């Protein structure tokens, strides 16, 4: 069926996608019931099970970067009947109001990636964005869970260790909330295949609040758990 996901893997309509395979395992082991490992090709772990309130859900890693999430999200949508992919990741904060530990619901992604060149848009550009119905549901559920939530655009970078330490300011000055490395590819695959995508991010570090301390390991896990709980409300 596909070369990067186990042939007979069964997925729920909604797949949560952390970058890290061990985070997929952690979510299955701590938040799902009746779950099964359905794929492990290249160590990219995927599980299908139910939330504790009985909703069907899968969780599978995307790996890092647009090419990686580009492959896995395409195959899930195209070959495995998946309708909704919800990326759950971390980002660097670009705005003062986006504190470490806060949640960003991504409306749209700008990027330095050439992923959209394949469509030969002759100078035109896409505006890759989250599905509004998923975004609205996540926003309402985030409010119910009392999360510190921001809603807006992010920058999906192809570069983590940028040669120019001030490059981020170009996007920060334009009101972009933060930086990560995957949403742009996921949103474009949802657009081209007429499926739905959403991206939920926890701010893990900040470019602007210089006196803000990094989270301890425990605080970080607690904040990630808050995001996982929100994502788990998105099952059907
Ligand atoms: N840059 C890119 N991706 C990220 C970052 C960052 O600073 N933090 C979390 N994901």
Characteristic key phrases:
236 residues, alpha/beta, Rossmann fold, five-stranded mixed barrel, 6 helices, 9 strands, 27% strand, binds hypoxanthine
Q: How would you sum up this structure, described in words?
A:
The chain has helices at 21-31, 66-79, 132-144, 168-172, 183-193, 217-232, and strands spanning 14-17, 32-39, 46-51, 56-60, 84-93, 103-111, 149-156, 178-180, 196-206. It is an alpha/beta fold and 236 residues long. 30% of the residues lie in helices and 27% in strands. The protein has a five-stranded mixed β-barrel, surrounded by four helices. The protein has six helices and nine strands. The structure holds hypoxanthine.
Short description:
With 236 residues, the protein is an alpha/beta fold. It has helices at 21-31, 66-79, 132-144, 168-172, 183-193, 217-232, and strands at residues 14-17, 32-39, 46-51, 56-60, 84-93, 103-111, 149-156, 178-180, 196-206.
Q: H/E element string?
A: EHEEEHEEHEHEHEH
* Secondary-structure arrangement, i.e. CATH architecture: 3-Layer(aba) Sandwich
The quaternary structure here is single chain
Could you say which small molecules are bound to this protein?
A: hypoxanthine
Determine the number of helices (DSSP H or I, runs of at least 4 residues): 6
């Amino acid at each position: 069926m596909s070369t990067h996901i186990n042939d007979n893997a069964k997925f729920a309509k909604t797949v949560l996608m952390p970058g890290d395979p061990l985070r997929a395992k952690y979510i299955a082991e701590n938040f799902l019931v009746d779950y099964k490992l359905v794929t492990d090709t290249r160590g990219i772990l995927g599980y299908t099970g139910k939330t504790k309130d009985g909703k069907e859900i899968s969780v599978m890693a995307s790996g890092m970067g647009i090419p990686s999430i580009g492959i896995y999200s395409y195959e899930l949508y195209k070959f495995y009947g998946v309708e909704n992919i919800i990326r759950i990741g971390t980002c660097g904060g670009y705005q003062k109001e986006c504190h470490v530990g806060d949640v960003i619901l991504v409306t749209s992604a700008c990027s330095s990636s050439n992923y959209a060149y394949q469509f030969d848009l002759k100078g035109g550009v896409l505006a890759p964005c989250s599905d509004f119905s998923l975004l609205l549901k996540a926003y309402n559920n985030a409010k119910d869970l009392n999360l510190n939530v921001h809603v807006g655009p992010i920058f999906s970078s192809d570069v983590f260790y940028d040669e120019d330490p001030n490059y981020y300011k170009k996007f920060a000055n334009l009101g972009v909330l933060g930086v990560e490395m995957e949403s742009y590819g996921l949103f474009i695959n949802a657009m081209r295949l007429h499926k739905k995508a959403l991206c939920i991010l926890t701010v893990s570090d900040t470019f602007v609040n210089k006196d803000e301390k990094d989270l301890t390991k425990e605080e970080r896990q607690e904040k990630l758990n808050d995001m996982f709980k929100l994502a788990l409300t998105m099952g059907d």
